[in-house]
Amino acid sequence: MRKHGEAFVGIDTAKARNAVAVAEGGREGELRYLGESDNTPDAVAKLVRKLAERYETVQFCYEAGPTGYGLHRQILALGQNCIVVVPSLIPRRPGDRVKTNRRDAQTLARLLRAGELTAVWVPDETHEAVRDLVRTRAMAIEDYRRKRQHVSSFLLRHGRSYEGTATWKGRHLQWLDRQSFAHPAQRLAFQEMLNTVRSVAERIDRLDAALLEIVPAWTMAPVVAAFQAMRGVGLVTATTMVAETGDIRRFEHPRQLMAFLGLVPSERSTGDTRKQGGITKTGNIRARKALIEAAWTYRHSAGIGEIHQARLAQLPEQIREIAWKAQARLCARYRRLTAKGKKPMVAITAIAREIAAFLWAIARHVEPSPAQPART
Prior knowledge:
This protein has 13 helices and seven strands. It is α/β, with parallel strands linked by helices. The chain folds into three domains: 4-114, 2-Layer Sandwich (Nucleotidyltransferase, domain 5); 125-217, no CATH class; 221-363, no CATH class. Strands 3-2-1-4-5 form a five-stranded mixed sheet. A two-stranded antiparallel sheet has the order 6-7. Helix 8 runs antiparallel to helix 10. It is globular, with a radius of gyration of 26 Å. The mean pLDDT is 93.
């Protein structure tokens, strides 16, 4: 059977079934809806083989979402090209108010043919596993914050206020254990909330221990270690940055990394008028939050502590020089910005943006470890 030319396949994925559309190459190429198929490996393999027999080259795409990257990896394993599309960057008509699986699949196929889709970076399975661990820890931290707030709110409702400054450690924990209530129901409620806080804290400790065990064996471990040369960037922050952004070397310029993290100013300009607003806050929120937290350490004067010095001792001189240059510059920059009347949060955001640039510079001097062959 004579094969046709090029085909662009759009897949609207769902938990149970996938909607599939094909746009043939050329401006006048036919756009057809092929219907829905089961979202199973066998059904996907059958679809890919059928299209590969009909067309000389086939390109697939689908939106990034809760279905993950399994479909992408299977299509690549079958010898075909596939991209995972950024949903927020898919062009949409302003007046389009109809959304169906069929129309979504056809839109993806048509835009893939036109070259108007933006692909996300797809991690390998190990990288995705580390990222899942990092995100689980972040969820535990947020859960820990909420559970502590429940205890504090309960005590405040009953007129109990801790007079010290440092909370949830040492004397504050002893003070919590001494609290008693007249009614048994209140005693039980308070103790249950306190036990929940301690349970979540133990969960965080287990996740931290898992990171300490898993990260050194990861191919990106040299990058994680190099990032810790920066002030305010410890193991968790460095692992979060690498797990969420992947290989930073894929960005040709640090401004691209800043834009990916949503740390660049928004802009609304027309004619001779240029108006910039707050940061875009697009891209990866977890990596951006990690940089913002790291930026707060630059409020103080430049210096190297004992723990930081121990981390630097194991790194090449070139990376240590970049880290010190960053610290000297950013500490001074924070003072200049606040002296000009900038709000602390605005200054910290500017510092976080520059931290991203210095991390990009460090990544250019570090090579990930080669992947180890799978054990049989």
